[in-house]
Amino acid sequence: MENSHRPPTAKGLAATFTGDVWGDGIYADAAPDRARLAIVRFAPGARSHWHAHRLGWTLHIVGGIALLGSRDGTVTEARPGDTVCTAPGEKHWHGAAPTASWPTWS
Known about the structure:
Elements: E1 10-11, E2 17-18, E3 21-28, E4 36-42, E5 47-48, E6 57-61, E7 66-70, E8 75-78, E9 83-86, E10 92-96, E11 102-105
Antiparallel strand pairs: 1-3, 2-5, 3-4, 4-11, 6-9, 6-11, 7-8, 7-10
């Protein structure tokens, strides 16, 4: 049995996010194919920079309104209970709607 202690809440880096973002790590597996689980909170209008995940990515919305952008220009709105997945290597961004912050499990 292993008991992992959660690290403290961390502010998102300006090199990765626009606006105020905070994260609470829940679980991180060993590299290179590490699974991670976190609660991430975006202030209204905050978002990630363009990025991709080598193994794909899953985001479950637990509150607020999320906006997710893809390279073809599509912006998808997601609400509590929605789960959004990207394919391995798919470039995207994600953030909060201008008037609503949102926490996520990812």
